[in-house]
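Entry type: protein chain
Record version: 2
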Amino acid sequence: MRIVLSILTLFAIAVAVALVAGNNQGTITLFWPPYRVDMSLNLVLLLLVGAFVLMHIALRALSALFAMPREARRWRLQHKERALHMALLDSLSHLTAGRFIRARKSAELVLVQETALERGGDKLAYGAQLRALSHLVAADSAHALHNRDAREDHFQQALLQASLKDAQETREGVQLRAARWALDDRDASAALRWLDELPQGAARRTIALRLRLKAARLAHQTRVALETARLLAKHRAFSELAGQSIVRGLALEHLGAAHDPAQLQKAWADFDGAEQVMPDIAIAAAQRLLALGGDVVMSRLWLLPVWERMVHGQGALPDVQRVKVIETLERGFALAQGAPDAPWLTRIETAQLRSPGDAMLQYLAGIACMHLQLWGKAQQLLKQSLPLLRNSALEQNAWLMLAVLAEQREDASAATEAYRNAMRSREDDAATPIRG
């Protein structure tokens, strides 16, 4: 379509010229004493157009002639830039392939060529960034070869070049690489220091958070590691199960670092609501509080969500966690040196009546009756739970409680039989192979 329009336009121009020039009777007379020259107007117009075209061609030829030195210089600069880029690509390729010596030599070749180019008067607009990246590749190669002196030399040069105005974006990468090297050297404090110097936006990137998590764990700063793990889970850096596992492990480590009830309560306050209702965390916190001689009522309060989940079937707990809940409550009853409080008695009794076939709830109700000095009911509940208990520790303790009750009744034979069964449970537990 465009070609057709062009042809039609040419025909229109030709027709217009024919109509105007064909009937043009005008003349132009030039007087050059003693001469007189008469020319037609059409010839004059044709000569003017020809002169214009000839002048245009001459000017273009002169412009091309005078531009040849500039074009030659630009071609040489492009050739040298291509050589720089090829050397940098070679260094990155060697670094990725694990040829660290070649990578370092290629990076140093980039630096030599760039320096020669700048001395020749051809300064690159991205020269600072190019030098920073070259020094960084050389430093990374030296780090892989455990050459710390060369690494530090190139790293300081990279940091210096990245501080220039036209290479600010490279500085963040240099700092992240320095943090990674510090982690490889097991220097957690240096890694955290480099990460703290990052801008706020860069510090919240996934790669920076991963490095901070590793550094915090290496430095045993469980609180910082826990906060970082939460951010990574929020950014979906882990799968949901992996994120929960990491957070749970860090929370348990954070609880284990507490050495008195005050520190433990502060550590518990560091957890969010979702973490406080995790069974493993709540059970570990309650057990740790009892082990440190803390408030029994508070330990039961921490354990309450797990208890509600256990007895109401909201995501049934595995037997291992159920046993830990029972043991923690039992230990709290013993440390309280008296009858359990009324709310917990009501909870235990209601749960046991709702699930009369649950041996663990029968066992716990029997222990509560022991502390209430309801000897007959305690004996009945403990005996009912024994055939169904699948935990040797609970079974052994139930036999010991029955032995105590038999001694109170002055029934020596029953007490002896109970002690014998408790010993048998202990021996069976010791003889059971551990499966991993």
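Comment: The chain is about 80% helix and 5% strand.
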